[in-house]
Amino acid sequence: MDVSSAKPPQTSDNNNDNKDEKDKQVTDKEILVQLKEILIDCEWQKRITEQASQKIEQQTLQRREELKAKIAAQKQYKKEWEEGRNSRVSSWRDWQTKDKKKKKKKKKKKPIVEGQKPDRAPDVDAFADKDGLSAADIPKSARKGKFKTRRGKRSG
User: Fold this and answer.
1) Which of 127, 156, 154, 128 is nearest to 144 (CA)?
2) Are 13 and 20 in contact (CB under 8 A)?
3) What residues have CB less than 8 Å from 137, skipping those under 6 apart?
């Protein structure tokens, strides 16, 4: 028996054949519509992923450029710092030598001679009353006056 030339069994109703063909045509149209929607969705997803990847690439390029600019600025700063070293060192050395010169030029204190008061504070006798009162006649509280003391309290 040769199976290759065999045909499928036919049903007795011819109307059923027409319905199957119509159902088959409708299904083919629906399949094409669904296939079209699937292809559109795939292309849309592809476009979205491409846009996202482009955005990521732009961000990485921007970060690289910022990093390059930052590194260049740091190099420039270090270069200027090194170039200015001589002037900083020389000014520091000048200041040190000036400081030593000042120490050498300090005034020598005069020796205190007996009977002579040192030149620290003005004599209390100078502030005595014109009426001939001496420093001993003026009470201690009056001599101080109402000045603030070291602790911030008023005296007298």
Assistant:
1) 156
2) no
3) 128, 129
* b/e 62-93 (16+ beta carbons within 10 angstroms → b): eeeeeeeeeeeeeeeeeeeeeeeeeeeeeeee
Could you read off the pLDDT of 63-122 as tens digits, one per residue?
999 999 999 999 999 999 999 988 888 888 888 888 665 555 666 777 666 766 555 555
Q: What are phi and psi of 110, to 5 degrees?
A: -75, 140
C-alpha closest to that of 138 among 148, 150, 125: 125
Q: How far apart are CA 28 and CA 155, in angstroms?
A: 114
Q: 42 vs 26, 47, 54, 120, CA distance in Å? A: 24, 9, 18, 100
| pLDDT at residue 62 tops 80 | yes
State the distance between the two ends of the chain, measured CA to CA, in whole angstroms: 144
Displacement of CA 11 from its chain's centroid (Å): 86
Q: What is the Cα–Cα distance from 156 to 140, expressed in whole angstroms?
A: 9
pLDDT in tens, 136-152: 666 666 555 554 555 55
